[in-house]
Amino acid sequence: MNIAETETPFIVEAKTCGFNNKKSISYHFIESSHSLCLDKRELVLAQIQACERLLKYAKDGSELSAIEKEIAELKLALDMLHY
Asked: Could you tell me the mean pLDDT of each successive run of 10 residues in the chain, 83 residues long?
């Protein structure tokens, strides 16, 4: 039997939304099958990975600072999940 791998290497995609100093990050699953079988740690790691990819495309300082703040908060949440 031949099995073709159709899944993308990333689970979550991040986007910036809002304007001026009110920027925030939103997420959505690239493949819907992942939304059923992720634990909290995997989800936070996927969000961090998505934000790190998003850093490459930051257009201005407010967008960059919003992404960096989100990454810091996600890393803190990940540390708290270990306890």
From this structure: 55 89 88 69 94 92 93 95 80
Residues 32, 33, 37, 42, CA torsion sign: negative
Do 41 and 81 form a contact (C-beta atoms < 8 A)? yes
Q: Which residues are paired to 14 by β-bridges?
A: 27
CA distances from 37 to 50, 56, 68, 69, 77 (A): 18, 29, 27, 27, 20
40-55 and 61-81 helices, crossing angle to 10°: 160
Helix (H) or strand (E) holding 76: helix 61-81
Q: Domain segments of the chain: what residues?
A: 12-81
Query: Which pLDDT value is given to residue 1?
Result: 45
Find tokens 């960096």 and name the residue: 68
In this predicted structure, what is the pLDDT of residue 19?
A: 83
Q: Which pLDDT does position 34 carry in this prediction? A: 52
